[in-house]
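Marked as duplicate of an earlier ticket. Keeping the data here for the record.
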Amino acid sequence: MVKIHYSRAENYSPAVLDEALKKSVGPVLAGIGGVAGKKVMIKPNLLEYRKENDPASVHPQLLTALCRMLKDGGAAEIAVIENPAVRTADMIIKAMNIMPELECMGVKVANCAKYTKFPMPEASRYHQLELAGEFREYDLVINFAKAKTHAMMTFTGGVKNLFGLVRGSERLSWHLAVGRNFDDFADMLLDIYLLVAPQVTLLDGITGMEGNGPGSGDAVELGFLCAASDALALDASVSERLGIAGTPVLKQAARRMLIPEYCNCGEVPAARTIKLPEPPEKKLEWGVYFPVKLRKLLRGMLLSKPVVNRKMCISCGLCAQKCPPQTLKMHHGIPKFDYPGCIRCYCCQEFCPKGAITVVPSRTLTLLSMLERIIRKLNIYRPGKRR
C-alpha cells in the first residue's frame, strides 16, 4: 500500500515550506533510510520562468527549501538536473534568482546530457527508449513535479514530469510518432515511469495552474504539498482531489493494471474542481458502431484544435520551430495552422511564451455536444436499453 503524504502550505515562506516538507517528503525519505551519505538527483519541472511566481515551474523557494532539507539530512551530493524545452536549466535557475543560494549549499545545476538507449522492463509497451542516463548515477532520484493542467494529457503530475528526461529533439519525434493517438503517448509516459522508477515524487500544489496549461494557464491557489514513493499512485490521488477524472495516463495505467493500491495520509486537502483545458478528444457514447474509415473521418472533425489570438501574438516564431510535423508556418508574422496535417500534440500551445495559442473545440464537436445534451435531457436515448 503506497501512502500519499499531504501537508498544508498556504504560501512559499521558508517557515511554512520547512514544516510542510517535513510532513510530506519527510516520511517518504524515512521509509527509504534517509539521505545521509547518498547522492541525490532532483528532476524538477522547469518548463519556463518568465515572471515572479510563474506557475509554469516548481516554485524557486520550494526548490531551495528541498535542497536545504537534503543537505541538513546529510546528503553527500545534490544535483538539480533538467532539460527545459527552450532555455537551459541554469538559465531558468538564474532567472529564479536562486543560483547563489544553491551554490552556497554546493548544489550542482546541470542540463541533461548523458543520453542512453535503455532496454525496457517487461511490463513496457515500447521495447527501447532513449533517456538522460544521469538518473542511474545517483543513489536517490526525487521527481519534483508541479500541479498543472495540460492541453494534451489533461494533467501534468509525477508521471508526465519524467518526460523531461527525453532529449529535446526526441520529444518532438515522439509527438510526431504518436501525436494523433493520445493513448499511445500516455503509454510512452508510463513506460518511462516504469524504467526510471523514482524513489520519491514530490508535487508542488501550493500554487498550481488551471486552464490553458502547462505554460500559459492561470495560477490557482491549492494550498498543499504531497509526496509518495510512487509517482503514478500520487497522480491518481491528486487527480481525485482536483476533480480530474479519466486522464489518458490514468486510463491507460488502469487498463494495464499498473496503478498500485494507495491511501491518503496527513493533512489531506478537501476535494475541489479546477478549470481544465478543452479535452483533446471527446468521444460520444451513443453506443453506435462506426466503420474504421468513418471513425477516422469523424475523429478529424471532432478533435479540438489550436487557434491563435492575433492581439497577443508577438511573432516570435517559436510555435513554428517546435511544431513536430512542421505543418505550422509563419505567415506575415502570424502562425498559420494546417489543420489536416496537425497531429494535435499542442506543442505550439505549450511553448507559446505569451499564451497566445489556446485549444478550442471544433464547431462540429460543439454542435454534436449540444445535440447530445438535448437527447439526454429529453431522455430519447438510454444507453444499454433496447426498445
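See parent ticket for discussion. The first strand starts at residue 2 and ends at 8.
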